Amino acid sequence: MELHVPDHPLIDHKLTVLRDERTDSARFRLLTEELVYLLAYEATRGLRVSPKEITTPVGPTTGVEISGPRPVVVPILRAGLGMFEGMIRMIPTAEVGFLGMVRDEETLEASTYAERLPTDLTDRQVYVVDPMLATGGTLILAIDYLLARGAHDVTAICLVSAPEGVKALEERYDGIANVTVYTAALDEKLNEHGYIVPGLGDAGDRLYGVV
Ligand code: URA
Predict the structure, then answer these.
(1) Which residues bind uracil (predicted)?
(2) Is the CB of residue 157 less than 8 Å from the CB of residue 38?
């Protein structure tokens, strides 16, 4: 498992405002989208492209276009929805698959309540988005679905991660699958309720105004 924590002042600035408990939902959603643009820019460096002949008003030239098979973006509902718009704006030709997952707040076990993924993910570059990589349980469940559909190349984009979650992903995938994580921050730890410290609280609640 490869972990990337891009070092960029705009990411750090926006993440600081996002974390602040005084930031309201409208601003939180906007900042999430902006952070997705910045993270997607880094996370898609390996996106496959092929040459494309075009003609500008001045003459012919060869550019590139995103190659087929189309990349797939998979938001993990609920909180991953907040990152979905930004991702498909960056990769407008992507196909979208959905995974609905919920974490039991007592046991911290993740379970699936909805799944609409393309049936065959062989050769597809898959970008799974979920803001908080806490215990890793949800992301592991999600990535396991993707691998079971034939995906070999999975990139997770998160806003805030805990070392416990990163370790769980390493233990699960090292040596068996090509999994990469891009995260805006790697925080200190999880608390006894499974929240990332300092984190930003419950990402879904903050995105959708539940708090
Ligand atoms: N999910 C969240 O929304 N926040 C956390 O800190 C951990 C899991």
Answers:
(1) 196, 201-203
(2) no
Q: Which atom of ligand 1 is nearest to the CA of 202?
A: 3
86: CATH: 3.40.50.2020
The structure's pTM equals 0.96
The Cα–Cα gap between 144 and 159 comes to 21
Longest dimension (CA), the chain: 64
ipTM above 0.90, yes or no: yes
In a domain, 192, yes or no: yes
Domain around 96:
2-47+69-208
CA atoms 84, 79, 163, 142: torsion sign: negative
Q: Does the pLDDT at position 211 exceed 80?
A: no
Cα of 84 vs centre of ligand 1, distance in Å, is 18
Instruction: Clarify whether 22 is annotated catalytic.
Output: no
Are the C-beta atoms of 178 and 152 separated by less than 8 Å? Answer: yes
Asked, for residue 54, whether it belongs to a domain, the answer is: no
Q: What is the pLDDT of residue 153?
A: 92
Tell me, in angstroms, the distance from the centre of ligand 1 to residue 199's CA.
Answer: 7
174 is catalytic: no
Distance 82 CA to ligand 1 centre (A): 14
From 16, 104, 107, 120, active-site residue: 107
Ligand 1 within 6 A of 202 CB?
A: yes
The string of pLDDT tens digits covering residues 38-56 is: 999 999 999 999 999 999 9
Residue 57 lies in a domain: no
Residue 55, domain member (yes or no): no
pLDDT tens, position by position, 121-148: 999 999 999 999 999 999 999 999 999 9
